[in-house]
Amino acid sequence: MPRQVDHVGRRRLIADAVCHLADERGLEGVTLRDVAARAQVSMGAVQRCFRTKEEMLVFALGHIGEQIMERVQARLVRSPAQSAGTALGHAVTEISLLREEHRAEARVWLAFVAQAAVSEVLARTLKANYATLQEAFTRLIAEAGEDADGAGRLDARREARTLLALADGLTTHVLIGHLTPQEAYDVLHAHLADLWERSRSSNSYENPRPAGPAGPASDGTPAIRRTRG
Asked: What is the tens place of the pLDDT at every residue in 80-126?
């Protein structure tokens, strides 16, 4: 009886191999032969999963995005958000890739961003990913404003674009050593504090100073906490 092949699992295995190689060499150094060797499958197996290198890279980019979003969801399940503002803090912390254990993932993500500047198909994939994140941020910012009786005070879509761009920029600044992770957390925390201050009406904002290298909370999440005035 012919052995059943898990094509979905094999594609993910190959995507992981692409990411490991991209971390070591950059995307220019990723070849089908090396990917096959790293994934411990044959060249034919790689070519049956992906017709071209570009198709393989697009899948790998989507694979990274899925992993990040899975972590966001797991974080919210582990620490149920009490408000849209808290959920926003969890989400933006995860996508910023500031923790040491996410450093390799940050390098791979930025390698894809650089390649997307000269690859239309990768650029389309990245734009779709950013659009999804922007919509999620827009919704959370709008909900946080409503929770604070500040509905209509903020342009939620513009604020979401700003926050997404800030998170992306902090990834780069930490990766090249311009900022430490703690300094990046401080920037995020200050921005979220200011965002909340501008959205509130009669509410007050508590802005505790981040303590320790993990950031403002023990898990590095810029927390948003409110009390009724």
From this structure: 656 788 888 888 999 999 999 999 999 999 999 999 999 999 999 99
Separation CA 185–CA 106 (nearest Å):
16
Q: What letter does residue 116 receive in the DSSP assignment? A: H
Contact 189, 159 (CB under 8 A): no
Q: How far is CA 98 from CA 95, 177, 184, 190, in A?
A: 8, 11, 8, 16
Q: How many CB atoms lie within 10 A of CB 129?
A: 19
| Cα separation, 163 vs 192, whole angstroms | 9
Read out DSSP for 149-187?
T-TTSS-HHHHHHHHHHHHHHHHHHHHTTSS-HHHHHHH
pTM of the model: 0.77
List Cβ neighbours of 52 (8 Å cut-off, separation of 6 or more): none
